[in-house]
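To illustrate this point, what follows is a protein record of this kind.

___
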Amino acid sequence: MNEQEQKGEELKEQDAEQASAQPQEQPAQEKCCGHKEEEKQCCGHGKEECGHKEGQEHDKHCRREKMKEELEKAQADAADFKDKWMRTAAEFDNFRKRNAYLDGKADILVKVLPVGDNLELALRSCAEEQTKKGIEMVLRSFRKLLEEEGIEEIDPKDEEFDPAFCEAVMSEPAAEGVEPGYVIEVFRKGYKKGGKVIRYAQVKVTT
């Protein structure tokens, strides 16, 4: 073997040694989220740990999860609002029926009130004692009925005129020592129930 061939052999041996000394290139790491069964597990990490290219898949997964949570919350809120609306509607319906019943009842009582007016008129004009006692008994029963229904009389004689409870049907100049704007005579009593007037008193007032 000549000198040139010997040098060539030595160069080949050096190249082989250098090649064997270099670490073998590792196969490219597969994206951890390339499989559906691994997606949820791997995306529990941050972008850097997940191994996705610039975290794009991780961001998509996070957005999906956030939208899912928002949808579930909106559905829960909608169900709650529907329940409250149904309860309110039921309460309003009960209130309307109750008021309609009370208004209807008040209308009937208003029609009955003239009976009391006639009994009082008959009592004032009756001269026969036995008949008078009979009228008084019926009138007491009538007043007891009104009391049981929570109805109160409005009898404002000698009181200051109040248009919230009275209707002035007549007036006359105030006498000496009497202030104007006072009720001096009640032609027809008024009635109220729970602060609500069901019939105004008809009165004469001073001017």
